[in-house]
Every structure is written in structure tokens, then in C-alpha cells.
Write a structure and sequence with these properties.
The chain is mainly alpha-helical. The protein has helices spanning 2-13, 34-41, 46-67, 72-98, 107-121, 126-150, 157-164, 177-196, 201-222, 237-241, 250-271, 281-287, 289-307, 315-342, and strands at 103-105, 166-168, 171-173. Strand 2 and strand 3 form a beta hairpin.
Length: 351
């Protein structure tokens, strides 16, 4: 949540923000200013982690509700309603902050519609389910290329929503459904493994992280298929890390999910046997992530416009804005967490 806020504060305040996370956004040979590039790049960890952990949370909560005696039909209905609500908040609420005057389908759309898809798909077994997700990650680029040739180089809107993303007048599809559904499926399978604790989740994460990063080195090193045409110009660190997020390439998946797995493994090991401060900033933000997300972008936009500095400052102001918004929202998040815990069956269960 903190890294995400840095990125969105940069979007509102930083005149030098550098976004070239797709082949259509980058012209070969363009210099990558290392500091601006790394500030943007470090936030790439956010979306895959959000979507992965949304799948994990869905698996854990579904099992908990089943054990509490709730029917499978009731759980499916709840997932469907929550998914549609989450997806609708992107065009109806978040677009006001990030793309005023336009409609943006990004991470909430991807998570919400992935929830909708999980209603029938979650009945699959772990092995075929994970295999389906991994197959898409590996062969999604081939499918995209084949469809581009079929449609003469321009994806129709329905295919773009599902597969490639794109800009259609005032509609911006930043997060197409299928590439991010694959990430949620892996999170769901991981959640199912957590329920059984065999083998230990830290071992799964460490092994998966190392394997994923190995795939990244191979794909990025070969510099061909798996990069969605966003190739390395040279051997510099920035060019190695300059992978396609829009839509996600195999090199993006393997790098970001590999890093996520290693970080999660570290934190799971670190927390074992430790007393966790329930009021700790990171814990509070993590437990109220959706609530925080719905408010932070609008606060950043309001601050930038009120001060008259939208896209006119630099990285120092970006970090000041990040700290200010987190400081303002932290008490609200603590209140919301208390409210949600006190009313588990109220409206807050959807947010």
C-alpha cells in the first residue's frame, strides 16, 4: 500500500514521472532516467501482489464460511455481488481521480471481474487450476499475436477487455481480465495450500520465487518471446527491469511474482514467534487495503489541485505527499477496521 501510494503521488505531483511499461509507450533507444525509472519500477510489485493475495484471501474466507455452516450457493452469491461492486468502482469512482473525464478500467476492474470468474472456476482442483493459469502466462503472448493478425492489427473492444487492453476513445482498458485472472488463480491455489500447511507455505514461496526469477533471467536474457515486444536495448540494469505491464508479459509475471514470493516468504518466517503490534502502520494498511485505496487517490488529486502543482513538482514533493496521505488516512483506517470487526455481516464486508 505504501509503494502504491508513492506511485500515485508521483502521478499527481511529479513532472518527471516516467511511464514506459508497454511496447506502445516506449520508443526504442529512449534513455531511461535511472532514478525516475526505479521509483516507477519498484511499484510494479503492487498490482500482482494485490491480485494474488485477493485470490488467497478468497480461498481462506470461502473455507472459513463453509466450516461455519454457510451454503456453497450463499458463498457464490456473495462473491458475485462483491466482484461486481469492486469492478464497478473503477469507472464510477476511481476514474474521477486518475483519469478525469475518461473511464479507466484498471486494478479494481481486474480484481472484481476475476472474482466473478472465480464463482464457477474455483470448483477446479488445485493442479489443473494452477496449470490453467501458468499456461496462460506462458502462451498468452502467442494468443494475443494470433488474434492481432486475425483482426488486422487492431483488437475489437470485447477482446481488448479480456486480453490485451487498449484505448477506445474515452475508455482506457489498463488491466484486461484474463492476464490478471491468471494471477488470482495462483493466489487461490496458494490459499488452498495454506489451509493444509503441507508442505510449509514458506517452502512453496521460496521455491516458487527462485524458479520464477530463473525464468525471468532466461526470458529477458534471450530477449525474444515472452517480452511482448518490449525488448532490451542493451545490458543495463534499467533495460533488464524494463518489462511490459500493459498487458503483463511473461517477463513481468516471472519478475514480479518471483520477488513477491521471496518477500512473502521472508515476512512469514520473520513473524513466526513474534508478537505483532496490532496498531502497526503496515498491518493496519494491509487489513484495510480496499478502504485505503478508495480514498487515497482522491486525496492526492485534491491536494495537487488545491496547491496548483499538478504534474509540476519532483520526487521530494512526491514523498511528502505520500507521507501526508498515509498519515491522514491511518486513523480513518483504524476506525474502519474496528467498525468492520464489530459489524462482520454489514455493508463493510464488501469493502
Amino acid at each position: 500500500m505504501v509503494l502504491m501510494t508513492v506511485d500515485h503521488a508521483s502521478e499527481m505531483f511529479n513532472a518527471g514521472r516516467f511511464v514506459t511499461d508497454a511496447a506502445f509507450l516506449y520508443k526504442t533507444g529512449t534513455p531511461l532516467p535511472i532514478l525516475q525509472f526505479l521509483i516507477r519500477w519498484m511499484t510494479h510489485l503492487c498490482a500482482p501482489t494485490f491480485v494474488f493475495l485477493a485470490g488467497t484471501s478468497l480461498a481462506l474466507s470461502s473455507e472459513k464460511r463453509l466450516k461455519a455452516g454457510e451454503s456453497a450457493a450463499s458463498i457464490s452469491r456473495s462473491i458475485l455481488i462483491r466482484g461486481l461492486l469492486i469492478a464497478a468502482l473503477d469507472p464510477l469512482w476511481m476514474s474521477w481521480a486518475f483519469t478525469p473525464g475518461r473511464i479507466l478500467l484498471q486494478v479494481l476492474f481486474a480484481i472484481g471481474m476475476s472474482f466473478v470468474c472465480m464463482v464457477p472456476l474455483r470448483r477446479l482442483g488445485n493442479v489443473p487450476f494452477a496449470g490453467l493459469a501458468l499456461a496462460f502466462m506462458v502462451f498468452g503472448e502467442a494468443l494475443t499475436g494470433a488474434l492481432l493478425r486475425l483482426f488486422g492489427g487492431t483488437m475489437p473492444l470485447p477482446v481488448a477487455v479480456l486480453l490485451s487492453g487498449g484505448v477506445f476513445g474515452k475508455l482506457i482498458i489498463g488491466y484486461p481480465l484474463f492476464p490478471w485472472l491468471a494471477v488470482m488463480i495462483l493466489g487461490w491455489v496458494f490459499g488452498r495450500c495454506l489451509l493444509h500447511q503441507n508442505p510449509k507455505p514458506t517452502r512453496w514461496l521460496m521455491t516458487g520465487g527462485v524458479l520464477s526469477l530463473t525464468i525471468f533471467v532466461l526470458v529477458r536474457g534471450i530477449n525474444g518471446y515472452g517480452n511482448l515486444r518490449l525488448f532490451r536495448d542493451d545490458r543495463s540494469l534499467a533495460q533488464w527491469l524494463h518489462v511490459s505491464k500493459y498487458p503483463p508479459s511473461l517477463s513481468f509475471y516471472s519478475l514480479e511474482l518471483g520477488l513477491m514470493a521471496l518477500v512473502l516468504s521472508f515476512f512469514l518466517r520473520w513473524q513466526q514467534g513474534r508478537k505483532i503490534n496490532s496498531s502497526g502502520l503496515l498491518l493496519v494498511l494491509g487489513q484495510t487495503a480496499f478502504f485505503f485505496y478508495l480514498l487515497h487517490g482522491h486525496l492526492l488529486l485534491l491536494a495537487a489541485k488545491s496547491l496548483g502543482v499538478t504534474h509540476q513538482r519532483g520526487l521530494p514533493e512526491t514523498f511528502v505527499a505520500t507521507a501526508a496521505v498515509i498519515g491522514l488516512l491511518y486513523p480513518a483506517c483504524r476506525w474502519y477496521r474496528r467498525y468492520k470487526n464489530a459489524h462482520p455481516n454489514g455493508w463493510a464486508r464488501y469493502i
